[in-house]
Write a structure and sequence with these properties.
single chain; 197 residues; 5-stranded antiparallel β-sheet; 4 helices; 38% strand; globular
């Protein structure tokens, strides 16, 4: 799953990596939580702010059931989006407690989390698509977000079949380290959340 992420990059970096001419104002955050208005990119390379989670509930969509669940099926076919992230958090079960880890790109400045745009009670929102963990992530959690590589942005944002992009990202595309339990509190939102412990 993906329950929190960070986006603290300079807006010019975001615009450059995603090929955007216009970037709406967004608040940089080290602890983006469900229910927040988040930056999303839809085709053809248009950025906007959407609420993460339909009714604060549908924050993730499992890749394996995207084409089966009515709520997700049409969204995956026609309304895919990219969600820029400096990194994401995942929680590892250790001796009866949950240890947060921060996962960040190894080479790019930003991840592109694969998302879908949902319509729920007349309100548009976004859900992050998750898939099985790669070998690096499997040591932390059994799920991870779908990460879309820059060369596949257009394919994800188009309306063609994107099923091939639902695979786990290569291990060497990311790195991870444990971080403070402070990330568990939504009110905590500063750069120290990213520091290794």
């Amino acid at each position: 799953m993906c329950g929190r992420y960070a986006l603290h990059a300079n807006p010019d970096v975001v615009a450059l990596q995603f090929g955007l001419d216009v970037l709406p104002g967004f608040k940089a955050s080290y602890n983006v939580c469900p229910g927040s208005d988040v930056l999303v990119i839809r085709g053809p390379r248009k950025a906007s702010l959407l609420r993460w989670g339909a009714g604060n509930k549908q924050i993730n969509a499992r890749a394996e059931t995207l084409t089966e669940r009515p709520m997700f099926r049409n969204a995956f076919r026609q309304y895919r989006c990219l969600i820029p992230a400096s990194g994401f958090y995942e929680w590892q079960s250790v001796a009866g407690r949950k240890q947060p880890w921060y996962v960040l790109p190894r080479e790019q400045q930003l991840f592109a989390l694969g998302g879908i745009v949902l319509l729920w009670r007349g309100v548009r929102s976004v859900a992050i698509v998750t898939t099985a963990a790669n070998a690096l992530m499997a040591k932390i959690h059994e799920r991870m977000p779908v990460l879309v590589a820059p060369g596949s942005y257009d394919a994800w944002l188009g309306t063609g079949d994107a099923s091939a992009l639902l695979a786990p990202a290569p291990d060497d595309a990311m790195q991870a380290h444990p971080v403070s339990l402070r990330v568990n509190a939504p009110a905590n939102d500063d750069a120290t959340l990213l520091l290794p412990i």
